[in-house]
């Protein structure tokens, strides 16, 4: 059921002129709205323009810092940027766009309030649309994957994974069952792009460091396996540096399997295409991304991979008043041979927002549009503390210099001076003190202690206080044991399913 025919009536503040609706509060959504609020300052002040940002989270996540957040080098709070503070001239709606009918200039949005009230989504009308819902993990129908694996795209996943890894060490340390110990100390990462490699390298570094504080776990007892279907890893840094990264990981006893696929991960056993079977309680899936499911619920043109077909001016091809950029958009790469698209990465996303905001402003004021042109300059990747690999502006770096470049580059890129100062302070302090190695997985169950005190029973828990995660939980073998991290508005079904069939039900689409 659609609650309101026009969101304008429910929005506080004076009625406005042109409404720019930005869907997504990530790189593209946040930077585009930020640039627009600067460029259209006068129009915003006079009520001639209104910018509405629809996003499931009140923050933008600086994804390149997720591996360091998982390793504990940066606090989760500093990996995210509060949208309300950044976009103080915009209206922020916390919710998920479920569909867009561009012909009628309206988006159907499930907000936190409509989910809470059970009243069904609202409709938000607009004059200009900016679609920036990004991408989600690209999964395959592998037995056990949906039940046992975790992705690595959100801050909740990164912190959930950190807690989980440390908990597995606690389990291994306290069990007498060799099979449980073996499974707890085996960590399988699928996908050799920067997300998978950086996540694995940072967590491995942290876990081997933590092992020194366990009386019965040696660093060599931990098994980290990287499974990659192609014959290389880190294609973003080029072949030579990719080979160096493999050597570096193998020298740390990380089992890098190239030209290998994950065939199944049911019942805590990972089965690889080379015949290997290993018990594991941890499967991290980072084997690529696909466009957000919302795109399939729009009337906009999509290419064969489901990205929105765009022009180099970042307009949606053949459609007026619709714009897109970032992971969700197929933008022609005018610096490469014809037919090539810009790759889904932050380097393009953040630069596209500049052109996007300029073009939207120009179109509102009747000016000419610019083309987006940026030649990919290469990439930097961290391989754990003081280790890295980089291929940027034709220069190849490895080891400490590459790691330093990685930090300097991302410090320069993370939004706001406030965040930069906080991250720098954290890095400085972590250089002076020992690493944090506690798991705060219990934060995911804040009521557990009270429920127990009040006489309630939790599934799988005996009358005594038991660790909330662990082998004694019995029938809950999924990852991470217990509820999946990240309470999001997405999963609740709409009280009245829409007749057009929502492809996103059960997904938050980020
Ligand atoms: C671990 C990791 C490390 C990375 N490291 C690098 C790196 O070093 N260098 C690099 O160039 N790139 C890197 N990337 C990729 C980069 O982060 C992405 O390319 C970039 O974030 C894309 O920006 P975007 O705005 O298109 O999508 P996102 O930043 O993902 O933003 C999409 C937003 O849309 C929201 N959304 C989704 N569905 C809906 C909906 N239905 N309604 C409303 N809102 C919705 C999401 O919640 C999210 O806020 C990394 C990615 C990951 C996961």
From TrEMBL:
Region (Disordered): 453-510
GO molecular function: oxidoreductase activity
Enzyme class label: oxidoreductase
Regions of compositional bias (Basic and acidic residues) in chain numbering: 491-501
Pro residues composition-biased segments: 477-490
Keyword Oxidoreductase among UniProt keywords: yes
Highest taxon, organism lineage: Bacteria
Keywords, alphabetical: FAD, Flavoprotein, NAD, Oxidoreductase
Coiled-coil region: none
Its EC number(s): 1.6.5.-
Gene3D superfamilies: 3.50.50.100
Family membership: Belongs to the NADH dehydrogenase family.
Record-given protein name: NAD(P)/FAD-dependent oxidoreductase
Species whose genome carries this gene: Streptomyces maoxianensis
């Amino acid at each position: 059921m659609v609650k309101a025919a026009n969101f304008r009536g429910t929005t506080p503040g004076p009625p406005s002129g042109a409404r720019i609706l930005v869907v997504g509060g990530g790189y593209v959504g946040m930077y585009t709205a930020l640039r627009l609020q600067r460029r259209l300052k006068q129009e915003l002040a006079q009520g001639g323009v209104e910018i509405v940002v629809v996003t499931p989270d009140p923050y933008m996540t600086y994804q390149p810092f997720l591996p360091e957040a998982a390793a504990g080098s940066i606090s989760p709070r500093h990996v995210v940027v509060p949208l309300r503070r950044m976009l103080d001239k915009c209206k922020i709606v916390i919710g998920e766009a479920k569909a867009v009918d561009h012909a009628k200039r309206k988006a159907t949005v499930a907000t936190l309030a409509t989910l809470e009230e059970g009243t069904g989504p609202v409709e938000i009308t607009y004059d200009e649309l900016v679609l920036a819902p990004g991408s989600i993990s690209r999964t395959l129908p592998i037995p056990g994957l949906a039940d046992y694996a975790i992705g690595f795209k959100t801050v909740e996943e990164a912190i959930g994974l950190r807690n989980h890894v440390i908990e597995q060490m606690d389990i291994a340390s306290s069990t007498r069952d060799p099979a449980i110990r073996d499974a707890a100390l085996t960590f399988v990462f699928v996908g050799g792009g920067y997300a998978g490699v950086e996540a694995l390298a940072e967590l491995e570094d942290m876990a081997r460091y933590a092992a020194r504080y366990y009386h019965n776990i040696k660093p060599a007892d931990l098994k980290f396996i990287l499974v990659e279907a192609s014959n290389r890893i880190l294609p973003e840094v080029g072949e030579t540096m990719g080979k160096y990264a493999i050597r570096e990981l193998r020298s740390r006893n990380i089992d890098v399997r190239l030209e290998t696929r994950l065939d199944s991960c049911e019942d805590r056993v990972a089965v690889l295409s080379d015949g290997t079977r290993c018990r594991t309680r941890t499967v991290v899936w980072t084997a690529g991304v696909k466009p957000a499911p919302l795109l399939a619920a729009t009337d906009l043109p999509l290419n064969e991979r489901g990205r929105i077909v765009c022009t180099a001016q970042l307009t949606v091809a053949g459609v007026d008043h619709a714009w897109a950029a970032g992971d969700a958009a197929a933008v022609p790469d005018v610096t490469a041979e014809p037919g090539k698209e810009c790759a889904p990465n932050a380097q393009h996303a953040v630069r596209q927002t500049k052109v996007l905001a300029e073009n939207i402003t120009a179109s509102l004021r009747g000016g000419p549009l610019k083309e987006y042109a940026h030649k990919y300059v290469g990439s930097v990747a961290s391989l754990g503390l003081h280790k890295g690999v980089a291929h940027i502006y034709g220069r190849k770096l490895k080891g400490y210099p590459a790691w330093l470049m990685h930090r300097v580059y991302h410090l320069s890129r993370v939004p706001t001076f406030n965040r930069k100062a906080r991250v720098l302070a954290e890095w400085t302090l972590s250089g002076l003190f020992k690493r944090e190695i506690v798991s705060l997985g219990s934060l995911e169950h804040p009521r557990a202690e009270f429920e127990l005190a009040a006489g309630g029973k939790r599934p799988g828990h005996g009358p005594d206080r038991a660790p909330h995660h662990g082998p004694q939980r019995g029938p809950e073998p999924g990852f991470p044991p217990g509820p999946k991290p990240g309470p999001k508005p997405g999963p609740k079904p709409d009280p009245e399913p829409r007749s057009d069939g929502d492809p996103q039900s059960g997904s938050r689409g980020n």
